[in-house]
Amino acid sequence: MSETEASGDGGRRGRFVTFEGGEGAGKSTQLTRLADRLRRLGLSVITTREPGGSPGAEALRHVLLSGAAEALGPEAEAILFAAARADHVEALIRPAVASGQWVICDRFIDSTRVYQGITGNVPPRLIAALESISVGTMLPDLTLLLDLPAAEGLKRAAARRGFDTADRFEKDGIDLHESRRDGFLALARSEPDRFAVIDAAQEVETVAEAVWYAVRRRLGI
Ligand code: Z5A
């Protein structure tokens, strides 16, 4: 049972929703639309992201995405992602959800499971231990997996980036990006109650409707 289910306040309970998927899948776009829609219903909504989302975690974001930590190896990178997440959970996510707010986060534990674990070869035992330390019971109520062929996502991300350089993970080869897609889909199959898989290859509006349908059906609003 996640912490939001366990709060038992009987009134308006907070919710914790995460978006996951590969590069350029449309997570930021859909997160903003979902937040706007929830706010129009009068709900209090916080949007956030990983790595980052709190001052301490944002400092680590730069280290992780610039590639400065890459030379330390995948296990050290996984530890740094977990350190950032621990700060984010304690500083922002847990208190906000406990006070009845909705928190919508761009990437969370499943990104670590896929990028560092399944396709990064960090042993499952270490991934699970780091998750337990950084997240504890603060698990998402719903994870929206935006699924898209890797080539299409990379094309979108490159168009948005323009002349900026690709970050530590964007510069990986297409096969690795496709393996990450498979990894996310495998996680979704293993936890069907938490995940909703959305076809992200459709028009922005169509994807937004699919996201909204999943949120209403799964979280009962
Ligand atoms: N990472 C990790 O390894 N381990 C971890 O534990 C965590 C993260 C938490 C964070 O990158 C990196 O860190 C990430 C994994 C790793 N790898 N990379 N790179 P980030 O935060 O900088 O970026 P991102 O999470 O990968 O997201 P993104 O590339 O910014 O894409 P997005 O948010 O999914 O997409 P978007 O910005 O909404 O859309 C991209 C473009 O496509 C944009 O121009 C949109 O207007 C357009 N778009 C959006 N939807 C559509 C549709 N439906 N059709 C056409 N065009 C669209």
Mean pLDDT metric: 94
Low-confidence stretches: 6-11
Q: Which fold name corresponds to the CATH topology?
A: Rossmann fold
Label the CATH architecture: 3-Layer(aba) Sandwich
How many distinct domains? 1
Which sequence of SSEs, written as H and E, runs from N to C?
Answer: HEHEHHEHHEHHEH
Task: Tell me the name of the CATH homologous superfamily.
Answer: P-loop containing nucleotide triphosphate hydrolases
- Strand proportion, as a percent range, falls in 5-15%
Total beta strand runs: 5
Ligand inventory: ligand Z5A
Outline type: globular
Sheet with most strands: strand arrangement: 2-3-1-4-5
Taking all Cα atoms into account, the compactness measure Rg is 17 Å
Q: Total number of helical segments?
A: 9
Q: Helix amount, in percent?
A: 55-70%
Q: Give a short account of the largest sheet.
A: 5 strands, parallel
Protein topology:
Blueprint lengths: L2 H4 L8 E7 L5 H14 L4 E5 L5 H12 L7 H25 L3 E5 L2 H10 L5 H12 L6 E6 L2 H12 L12 H17 L4 E5 L4 H16 L2
Parallel strand pairs: 1-3, 1-4, 2-3, 4-5
The site of ligand Z5A has 28 residues, from helix 2, helix 5, helix 7 and helix 9.
Can you tell me about this structure?
- With 221 residues, this protein is an alpha/beta fold.
- It has helices spanning 3-6, 27-40, 55-66, 74-98, 109-118, 124-135, 150-161, 174-190, 204-219; strands spanning 15-21, 45-49, 102-106, 142-147, 195-199.
- The model is unreliable at 6-11 (pLDDT under 50).
- Strands 2-3-1-4-5 form a five-stranded parallel beta sheet, with helices on both faces.
- 55% of the residues lie in helices and 13% in strands.
- The two termini are 19 Å apart.
- The radius of gyration is 17 Å and the shape is globular.
- The chain has a single domain (20-216), classed as Rossmann fold.
- The protein has nine helices and five strands; from the N terminus they run αβαβααβααβααβα.
